Each structure stands twice: as structure tokens, then as C-alpha cells.
């Protein structure tokens, strides 16, 4: 029996070794150098390798390892320009306020000054406050409105807490009154329901008793049930109410620490996936859309991650569970070798050194920047994609089936942090 077990172990070890070798050979053999990440470089010939990998995909997701990775922001800005000018993408959907970047954006005059001011106020400051995002938010995006092909902005985050969303409760009140919903005729509607909905958006900062979350959820469920009888299933205001319901749930789990680790991230990512699907299917069904978000959100699965005992769901996983969306989506992750990371207002930290046998060490000979497409490998090894070490989820090198999480990886050799943009 012992010789048999020894032989079986040897066979399994050989199989794992061969799979690792196949992955390494594929990655080293297909890695293509990228000349620069600087957005001012309009010679996009080096980005054609990414464009060819994307093919006819209508949705391209661009990740980032941490909210403060300056060269990643530069690379993403250059990719936005390339995708817009060479591939016909006309919508930029950002991990920020769903209400502000849809309702407010649609009503905004599109002169350059108004666009710049609005973007700076209604996109999270991890991006708008970073010097590396200056070319995107203060120059390129507003400038497209002086052309025949402007880039429309959209948001998909159910954290509706940015300045324009101060108007959310008032505008929702007007809609509900115009529909003459039964709930609007109740004694508590004016004195309790609308004020509570207005306050709820800031409960992440000052958390009330759990009973108030339950009461708010009950009111919102009643509102949604009554509104759904008069509005179409895809109506924007039903989507807003759904976001309020999930925002309330998200903040409840932040308050209830016993449940936070199991549910809070899932609530947010599932709603962001629903919002993104709504943008792709309802608001912009015929447009090509760029998605700007954290890599952990856009990853197509988190089941294989070694740090995922909570079984956290990703937005990208929920989104691509729809075959019609999955078939038209290309997901780009990012990886880096060394340097510093950190967010504005928080201490910087040094990137941990990658494993000797890791994606970063395999592609580093290609130069400061490179790109690897995983699509062909995915198709050939769908049943057993194999594992390798990479810092693709954040800045920590872990072993996972990375070809299941992303369709391609943009490698950056030297990472550094944002400087605060005045």
C-alpha cells in the first residue's frame, strides 16, 4: 500500500509541476512590452496588443490593486483615451455614487467648467484628489465635450453619499407624491419616512440603533412595492430605491460587527453588479462601456482566493454570471513588482517582495510595463487552469487560479503613491 501511495503522490506532484510549467511558459511567451503609461503619449501602437485581446468586447473593466496607485491611474487614463479614440468606447462607469453620476450627470450642462467641477465633487477623492488623475478628470473627459464623440459618465456604487445626492430624498419625495402612492398619505410619511431616508445615507459615519435600520428597510420595501405597480421594471427610480435598500443593509452590517464579515461586502458588490447590468442593458444598451473600479470588485470570482473564508462575492463575479454580459466583457487586472503604496491621508507602505516563482518575476524581463492576455489560456485550460503566485488582488503575493479572475494583466514594475491634488 505504501509504495502505491508514494507513486500516487509522485504522479500528482509531477502533474502540478507540469501545470505550473505550462502557465509559466504561457505567461513568459505571451507577455508583451508596453512602452509607457503616460497619458500624453498618443502613439497607441503599443496598446494594440490590449486592443486585440479585447476584440469586440463591449464592456472593458479596468482594476487597481489599491486606491492610490499613481502609475496605475496613469495607465488607466491612457487606456481610456485609447479605448475611446481607437475602439469606440463612449461611457466611463466609475465606482462612485449611482445617483449623482446618473441623475445629476444627466441634468448637468456639459461645458468644460461645469463638467470639471461636477466630477471633482461627485467622484470619490481617492481618484479626484490624486495628481495622477489630473489629466483624466480636469482635461481629457471635459475636453471630449468639445468633440463629436463625448464620453458620458456613469456611477454604479450604492454608496450614495456625495454632494449631489443631498438632493436624493427631496427628488424621490417628488416622484412618490406624483405617483400618489398610498404610503405618501400615511401620517408618518412626511415626519419620519422621508427624513429617515435622507439621514440613512450618512449612517456609515454615525450609526443608529439596529431597530432603525429595520424600520427604514420596512418603509423602503413598502415604497418599492407600491412604486413597482406603476413604474416599468427597469425604471431609474426603482433602481434608486433598490440602492437605498441595499445601502441601508450595507450600513446595518457595518454596525452589526458579528454579521459584517459575512454580509456587508456581498451586499455592496451584488448591488454594484445590478447597477452595472442596468447601465449596460437599460441606460446604455448600444454603447461601449469602460468600468473603472478596484480589482477586488471587478474580479470574476473570489472562490479560489486563500483569504476568502467568508465566501465574499465580487461584483465582477455576479455581473458575469449573466452569460450575455460575460460574453461581451473583458476584465483587466493590474500587478506590480516593488515600490510603495497607500491612499491619500493614510501612511504609505512598502510592497512585499514577490515569490521567486511568481507572475511578477516571470514578466519582469519584458521591462517597466507589460501586458499578458489570459483568454486563450482560459479556453484551453478551462477545466484545470492551475495556480500561480501574483499580486493581482492587492499588493500581496498569493497563489490562486488567477486566469479565472482576470482576462488579462497589466504589469507595472515600479509602484508609487499619489500626491494630493490641490
UniProtKB/TrEMBL annotation:
The lineage of its organism: Bacteria, Pseudomonadati, Bacteroidota, Chitinophagia, Chitinophagales. The keyword Signal applies. It comes from the Bacteria. This is Erythromycin esterase. It comes from Niastella vici. SUPFAM superfamilies: EreA/ChaN-like (SSF159501). GO terms for biological process: response to antibiotic. Coiled coil: none annotated. It holds the Pfam family Erythro_esteras. Residues 1-19 form the signal peptide. Gene3D superfamilies: EreA-like (biosynthetic domain). Keywords: Signal. The keyword Manganese does not apply.
Amino acid at each position: 500500500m505504501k509504495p502505491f501511495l508514494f507513486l500516487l503522490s509522485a504522479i500528482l506532484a509531477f502533474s502540478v509541476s507540469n501545470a505550473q510549467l505550462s502557465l509559466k511558459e504561457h505567461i513568459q511567451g505571451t507577455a508583451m512590452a508596453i512602452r509607457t503609461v503616460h497619458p500624453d503619449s498618443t502613439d497607441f501602437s503599443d496598446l494594440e496588443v490590449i486592443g486585440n485581446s479585447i476584440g469586440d468586447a463591449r464592456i472593458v473593466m479596468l482594476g487597481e490593486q489599491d486606491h492610490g496607485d499613481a502609475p496605475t491611474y496613469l495607465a488607466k487614463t491612457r487606456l481610456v483615451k485609447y479605448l475611446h479614440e481607437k475602439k469606440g468606447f463612449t461611457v466611463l462607469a466609475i465606482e462612485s455614487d449611482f445617483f449623482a453620476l446618473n441623475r445629476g450627470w444627466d441634468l448637468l450642462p456639459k461645458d468644460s467648467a461645469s463638467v470639471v467641477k461636477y466630477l471633482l465633487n461627485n467622484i470619490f477623492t481617492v481618484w479626484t484628489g490624486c495628481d495622477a488623475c489630473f489629466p483624466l478628470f480636469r482635461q481629457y473627459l471635459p475636453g471630449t465635450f468639445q468633440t463629436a464623440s463625448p464620453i458620458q459618465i456613469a456611477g454604479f456604487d450604492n454608496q450614495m453619499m456625495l454632494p449631489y445626492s443631498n438632493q436624493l430624498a427631496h427628488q424621490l419625495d417628488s416622484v412618490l407624491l406624483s405617483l400618489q402612492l398610498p404610503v405618501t398619505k400615511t401620517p408618518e410619511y412626511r415626519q419620519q419616512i422621508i427624513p429617515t431616508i435622507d439621514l440613512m445615507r450618512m449612517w456609515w459615519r454615525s450609526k443608529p440603533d439596529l431597530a432603525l435600520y429595520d424600520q427604514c428597510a420596512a418603509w423602503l420595501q413598502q415604497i418599492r412595492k407600491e412604486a413597482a405597480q406603476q413604474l416599468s421594471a427597469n425604471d431609474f427610480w426603482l433602481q434608486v430605491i433598490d440602492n437605498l435598500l441595499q445601502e441601508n443593509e450595507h450600513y446595518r452590517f457595518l454596525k452589526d460587527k458579528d454579521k459584517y464579515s459575512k454580509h456587508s461586502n456581498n451586499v455592496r458588490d451584488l448591488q454594484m453588479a445590478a447597477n452595472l447590468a442596468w447601465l449596460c442593458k437599460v441606460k446604455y444598451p448600444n454603447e461601449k462601456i469602460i468600468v473603472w473600479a478596484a480589482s477586488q470588485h471587478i474580479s470574476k470570482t473570489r472562490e479560489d482566493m486563500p483569504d476568502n473564508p467568508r465566501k465574499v462575492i465580487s461584483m465582477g463575479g455576479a455581473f458575469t454570471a449573466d452569460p450575455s454580459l460575460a460574453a461581451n466583457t473583458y476584465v483587466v487586472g493590474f500587478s506590480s513588482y516593488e515600490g510603495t503604496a497607500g491612499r491619500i491621508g493614510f501612511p504609505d507602505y512598502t510592497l512585499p517582495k514577490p515569490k521567486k516563482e511568481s507572475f511578477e518575476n516571470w514578466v519582469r524581463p519584458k521591462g517597466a510595463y507589460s501586458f499578458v492576455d489570459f483568454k486563450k489560456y482560459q479556453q484551453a485550460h478551462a477545466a484545470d487552469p492551475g495556480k500561480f503566485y501574483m499580486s493581482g488582488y492587492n499588493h500581496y503575493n498569493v497563489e490562486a487560479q488567477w486566469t479565472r479572475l482576470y482576462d488579462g494583466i497589466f504589469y507595472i514594475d515600479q509602484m508609487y503613491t499619489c500626491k494630493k491634488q490641490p
